[in-house]
Design goal:
Blueprint lengths: L4 E5 L3 E6 L5 H14 L1 H4 L2 E8 L5 H13 L3 E7 L3 H21 L1 E5 L7 E4 L2 E5 L7 E4 L3 E7 L2 E4 L9 E6 L3 E4 L2 E2 L14 E6 L2 E6 L4 H4 L4
Parallel strand pairs: 2-3, 3-4, 5-7, 6-8, 7-9, 8-10, 9-11, 10-12
Antiparallel strand pairs: 1-2, 11-14, 12-13, 14-15
Helix pairs in contact: 1-3
Amino acid sequence: MRNAVIIKGNKAGMSVYLDPELSFEELLEAVKAKFRETAKFWGAAQMTLTLEGKPLTAEEEFQIVNTITENSGIEILCLIDKDAERIERCEKALNEKLMELSSCTGQFYKGNLRNGDLLESEASIVIIGDVEKGAKVTARGNVIVLGTLKGSVSAGAAGNLNAVIVAFEMAPSQVKISDLNFQKAEKGKLLGRGPMMILVENGRICSEPIKKNFFSSLNFI
C-alpha cells in the first residue's frame, strides 16, 4: 500500500513527507489519520516541523499544522522553511526589523560570541548568532539571542526585574536577571526544545517555551 504521508524524526523535531501526486484534500485526510494512529508514540511534545514533497501555499501549511495539533499531543513551535528564496526574504525582513529596533530601543550584534568574548550594552541587545560557552553578555535591558545560548548572560543589570532573556536554543552556563540567579542553568543542558524565554515571575526567575510568533517577543525590547 502506498504511503501518502511519511514522518521522519530528527534532533530538532520532525519532517513530514507528503506524496506530491495526491490532492491537498487527500493529503489532509492522510495527515489526520497518520497522526491519530501515532499519537501515543509521539506523546505530548513540542517540535519544529518541516514539510517536504508537495509545494504548499501558506494557508495549506497552516491547515496541516492545525490538523497535526488537533489529532495528536504535538505542539508545533515553528515551521522550518526549505524554500531558499523565501528564507532569504525572511532573513532580509528580520535584519530590517532588527535595524529598526536597534535605532530606537537598543543595540544589535551580528556574529558569534566565542570563549573569552565579553559583550556589554547600556540598553537591550539582539545578538544575531550564537553565544558560545565561555562568552559573557551583560545588558541593562533584555538579551535576545537569535541562535544558541551556551555562555553566561546577565540581563536587567541595573535592577530591572522586567527584563527577559530569549534564545532559539537555550543551554546556558549561567543566567542572571537583576540580582536573581537562575539555579536551573547547567553547562550544556538544554532548558527545553525550541525557543525559550527566561523571566521573573512572582519574584522568582523561571524559564518557559515561546509559544507565540517570535516577532511579538521582540516587542519586549
